Amino acid sequence: MTTQDHSDGTVVTSYVEAPTNTVTAGGVNFVYRELGPKGGIPVVFFVHLAATLDYWDPRIVDAIAENRHVIAFDQRGVGASSGEVPDSIEAMADDAYAFIKALGHDTIDVFSFSLGGFIAQALIAKHPELVRKLVLTGTGPKGGKDIDKVAGITYYDILKATLTRSDPREFLFFNRDVKGKRAAKAYVERTTGARTEGRDAPMPLKGFRTQLKAIKKYGRGTPHDLSKLTQPTLIANGDNDRMVPSVLSEDMHRRIKGSELIIYPNSGHGGIFQFHQEFAPIAAEFLKR
């Protein structure tokens, strides 16, 4: 069994220390980071709207990488990956497939958040044999109620964040009560303060707008038949998700046979980050099973 290691041979178990690599697939140079013990089926992380490699919460990644090979990557046109952001979720799923195949993997587990969950569902609809296990967090099904309204909420919260010189995720992902504000600050600190060297390139504004267009299309699209999903699936969200309504997590739970559902109280879109101490071991155990 080989390991994802530093030049001195030690296994990288901390996301903050994971080196950034590049692989070319379909004419795109995809940047990615991997950590944890190699060998077996990797867990591929699918990131959210406007996010790059630096946006993953190390508390969750590290918990899973303790005994699993973890891969996080930037989609086409995101961060330091080359090319232009595609204008459909399906095209993003095709890129993800090309990336996974370029790394030589025939079977993966998926950990997804928000937009990443849309892409993961589109990937499974086309390549059901590729994915063994699925984690869907802060996300919803194709054609889901109010997903097409994400752009409006996002622009409104970005404006509020700009006026208060805050990170937009503090408004988009967390409730604006005392606990929510505290959790928001801690989360932003974990994702922006920990890695000081070798940070990813920022998300280009044009690409961000294209992602929003793709989300709108997805929200108005014909739903996937989720009853066909045979993968063991873990679904999680906060009970007050303003971006991808929490009822959509319940909707997916009803439609995906045998799926498990966790709804965290008094929390928003970033419920899994607010409750990372509870959620990280549950996700790690689900993926280890």
Automatic annotation (TrEMBL):
InterPro entries recorded: AB_hydrolase, AB_hydrolase_1, AB_hydrolase_fold
UniProt GO MF annotations: hydrolase activity
Key word tRNA-binding present: no
Keyword Protein transport part of the UniProt annotation: no
Residues covered by the AB hydrolase-1 domain: 43-273
UniProt lineage: Bacteria, Bacillati, Actinomycetota, Actinomycetes, Glycomycetales
Pfam families: Abhydrolase_1
Name of the protein in question: Alpha/beta hydrolase
Keywords: Hydrolase
Organism the protein comes from: Glycomyces lechevalierae
Recorded superkingdom: Bacteria
